Amino acid sequence: MDQSFVHAALELTTPGRSLEDTLALDSPDELLALLYRQMRALAGPRQDLDDLVQAAAERALKALSRFEGRSSLSTFTYGIVYRTLIDQQRWYRRFQRRFALDAREEEAEELSFPRSSETDLRELERARRLYAALETLPHEKRATLILHDLEGLDVSEVASISGAGEGTVRSRLRDAHKKLAEILRQDPLFDPEVPV
Amino acid sequence: MSAADLARLELAKRAYRATEPSAAEVQRGVRKARLALRRPRQRRAWFSKTLVAVVLAMGGLAYAKPQALGELVTSALQRSKPTMPKRSAGVAVTPAPVASKISEPVAAVPAREAQVEAQVETVQPGVQPVKSSPPQAKSALRVPLVPTRAAAVTDTEPVAQQAMASNWGRVGAALARGDEARALAALDELADSDDQRTRDKADLGRAQLFMANGNRDQACATARSLTNRRAGSRIERQAQVLLKSCRR
């Protein structure tokens, strides 16, 4: 993320300016793209991804004026995306508990990846199973594992995003690794001996 | 994690990267987000909240004190039209005695306060016909081609109203003279009235007089009956004040 974009974004979201005024300009596109990628990383390719991105974008555009530059803008927006997703998942869980008539309704929805080549099909299936395995983890642990292992952020950044201490992040990471390894061990598609 | 687990995790990372969103997918997502954010928002949340609050408040009031709502509306109407014609339907408004004219016959100070309250209440019925005057005033201004039922009712009303007003006048005059026995007798007559509100007010006056004379049991019984039958907010409030001294 280049520094000029950060400045542009900050200028756009001066306290007196409304969300509509900000959106009338072009620069938020880059911010929205960043939010989309981050939400897609944390939530996976799900049907309500657009709604989640919209919710995160609303929060981000309102919160940008409070961004002090102590962390990178990416970490700042990751934090917003993380909180939006956690809130949505909590709400959804409450909703399911109250209104779901059948336990099967809680099953993860079918993931759809826009890929077609034969080599990709194997990766596609692997990714599908990976997301299915990640779905079995608690929200915080899943997010920690994705941010650290799959997105390549370090522990301090993950701690800043999730609002937890570094010790907590390490603990969550350890638990998530353990659980994920258990699941992947039983999956032949993740057998390292099998040739790719 | 063992070496095999790390290798599995590497495979997982590769699969994850292989399914990362393409630039086209991101652009589509951005476009959707922009469109969604541009959508006009509902700004009427405050209106519906206020409406719900008002309906709940009015409903609660109507449930807890059915007569209070009527009183509220009447007082609001009266406040909005202060210069209402007072001679509607030929109702004679009897000038009620003012509290300052009362001599000092009662010994106890609380008793005097109670008497003053009773007098303040007695002033109300004299003015009361004015409250119901707006519809009558309207009908008086219009020339009806056919005598309506409302007009027939108003023909018979003045006699009863006059009698009632004269009763309240007697109560006021007796209290001004310090003749509590007569005041009580006049209140007893009013307590047999057909109008429930008149009965309630008369009972309140009686209760206050009983209390002033030290007849606490009777005063308390009368005040209790007033609160039990939910006799309007003001009357009930004053009955509650009397009941406080009953509990002592």
Structural commentary:
- The complex is a heterodimer of chains A (196) and B (248).
- Chain A folds into two domains: 1-107, Rna Polymerase Sigma Factor, Chain: A (Orthogonal Bundle), CATH 1.10.1740; 109-196, Winged helix-like DNA-binding domain superfamily/Winged helix DNA-binding domain (Arc Repressor Mutant, subunit A), CATH 1.10.10.10.
- In chain A, 67% of the residues lie in helices and 0% in strands.
- Chain A has nine helices and no strands.
- With 248 residues, chain B is mostly helical.
- Chain B has one domain (55-247).
- Mean pLDDT of chain B is 70; it is low at 84-114 and 120-155.
- The interface between A and B is medium-sized, with 40 and 29 residues.
Q: How is this structure best summarized?
A:
Chain A is an all-alpha fold and 196 residues long. Chain A is built from nine helices and no strands. Chain B has one domain (55-247).
Oligomer designation: heterodimer
CATH class of the largest domain in chain A: Mainly Alpha
Helix-strand string of chain A: HHHHHHHHH
Shape of chain B: elongated
What order do the helices and strands come in, and which of them pair?
The complex is a heterodimer of chains A (196) and B (248).
Chain A: H1 3-12, H2 19-23, H3 28-43, H4 49-63, H5 73-99, H6 118-135, H7 139-150, H8 155-162, H9 166-185
Chain B: H1 3-18, H2 23-38, H3 45-64, H4 66-80, H5 109-131, H6 133-141, H7 149-177, H8 180-191, H9 196-212, H10 216-228, H11 233-247
